[in-house]
Structures are given as structure tokens and as C-alpha cells.
Amino acid sequence: MRLNNLGIVRTKIERPDPADVARLSQFGVATIHEAMGRVGLLRPYIRPAYTGAKLCGPAVTVLLQPGDNWMFHVAAEQVQDGDVIVAGCTTESEDGFFGELLATSLTARGCKGLVIDGGVRDVADLEKMNFPVFSRAINSKGTVKATLGSVNVDVVVANALVHPGDVVVADVDGVVVVPRELVGAVADASQKREDNEEAKRQKFREGVLGLDIYGMREPLAAAGLEYVED
């Protein structure tokens, strides 16, 4: 009988339709988050390691031990083209789990980036490689390879639950998780929201006020807002 989920590598995970992932990748994190009903965001301390980093892909999940990056090497074998690595830790740790050598290995497997609730290093090299990374910290502190974690188990990353195969989207506005079975529907909802916002954007360009676009005048008056000329 297992007492925890450590020491497990699940070699078969379900991934969403690549066409749906491609459609979802056209939208920003804020649009996707709103389209899903304002859910799915990771905590805002997860930031791009360098300016311009962005990613979208199915998650190969990694559960790390603090100060130990052994499981990244195990996870590399499970990566398929288009995947992203999403890594949590058994407890808070900002050590430099990931750098240029691991990025080189993962790139060769078709990996499209990393989201980690921990530290990374070699940021200048990662930027030159155009390997997008979103992390809790940038930290040169090295790690060891000594303690088992797991690969492709459910992980909590920056307060968000991520299942293997869920799609993770990240850009300058943050990181959002889309459940695998909802990727197509969320892409549809995001497109609908984008179309609606474009219509509003055009009205704003024409000088129409948000007070009128959103029908705010009556509820503001009902709430007691008064315009006073002194």
C-alpha cells in the first residue's frame, strides 16, 4: 500500500486535440481566464524569466523535492513534441532547479517550455535559446540528484491544481491552466470574448464612453452617484 505519490512515473497520459491547442494558443492568458469564468490562474508570483517569453502546450507534470532536480531528467523521457513541463515541489523551494543544459535536453525532445514553482538559472542562455520559462525565482543556487519525486501525477503549482495533459498557457500577464477535456470549448469561448472585445474596442476608438457601452448610468444613479456643479 502506497502512503504517498512519490516514486511514480506515468508513461501514458491523455493529451487534447493538437488543433484545439493551436487555437487556444492564439489567445492571451487574461482572455482565457475570463472566458473560463475567472478560474485557472496560477499565483501572480510566477513570472517570465525573460521579456517576451510565452508558451502553450499540454502539461507533463513533475513533482520535485526541495533542492533536487533529479525528476527533470526522468521527465525528459516522457516529453512529446509540443508538451510543456509543469513542475511543483513537495514544499516551498527557490533553488535553481533548471538551467541551460536541461533546456537543451528538453528542446531536443520537442518541449515548448517550463512553468515551475521554484527557481531557475542561466536566464541569458535560455533567452538566446528562445526556451520560455516561467518561474517563482531566478536563483543560481545549485541542486542535487538524490531524492525521488514523481512524473505525470497531479501537482499543485502556485496554488493551481494541474493534471497531466491539461493545457498551460503563459505570457506576460501570468499563467493559466485549462483542463484537458475543456480545451476546445475554452478556445471557442475565448474567440467569442475576443470578438466581443473588438467590437467594444472600436466604439472606444470612436470616443464612446464605457459609461454608455456598459449601460452604467442608471445603476450608478440608483447607487446614489450625483454630479454636482460648484
What proportion of the residues is helical, as a percent range?
Answer: 25-40%
Main beta-sheet strand count, sense and barrel state: 9 strands, mixed
Number of strands: 11
Total DSSP helices = 8
Structural class: alpha/beta
| Rg calculated over all Cα atoms | 21 Å
Low-confidence stretches: none
- Topology as a string of helices (H) and strands (E): HHEEHEEHEHEEEEEEHHH
Cα distance, first to last residue?
77 Å
The dominant shape is: elongated
* Beta strand %: 15-25%
Spell out the key features of this protein.
RraA/RraA-like_sf, EC 4.1.1.112, LigK_PcmE, single chain, alpha/beta, 230 residues, RraA/RraA-like
Please outline what is shown here:
The protein has helices at 18-24, 29-35, 70-76, 100-108, 123-129, 183-205, 210-213, 217-222; strands at residues 47-48, 55-64, 84-89, 96-98, 114-120, 133-138, 150-151, 155-157, 160-162, 167-171, 174-178. The chain is of the alpha/beta class and 230 residues long.
Give structural notes:
The chain has helices spanning 18-24, 29-35, 70-76, 100-108, 123-129, 183-205, 210-213, 217-222, and strands at residues 47-48, 55-64, 84-89, 96-98, 114-120, 133-138, 150-151, 155-157, 160-162, 167-171, 174-178. The protein has 230 residues and is of the alpha/beta class. Strands 1, 2, 3, 4, 5, 6, 7, 10 and 11 form a nine-stranded mixed sheet that branches. A hairpin with a 2-residue loop joins β8 and β9. α2 (29-35) packs across α6 (183-205). The longest helix is centred in the C-terminal third of the chain and has 23 residues, at 183-205. The chain is elongated. The mean pLDDT is 97. It comes from Microbacterium schleiferi. GO terms for molecular function: 4-hydroxy-4-methyl-2-oxoglutarate aldolase activity; oxaloacetate decarboxylase activity. It catalyses: 4-hydroxy-4-methyl-2-oxoglutarate = 2 pyruvate; oxaloacetate + H(+) = pyruvate + CO2. Homotrimer. Its cofactor is a divalent metal cation.
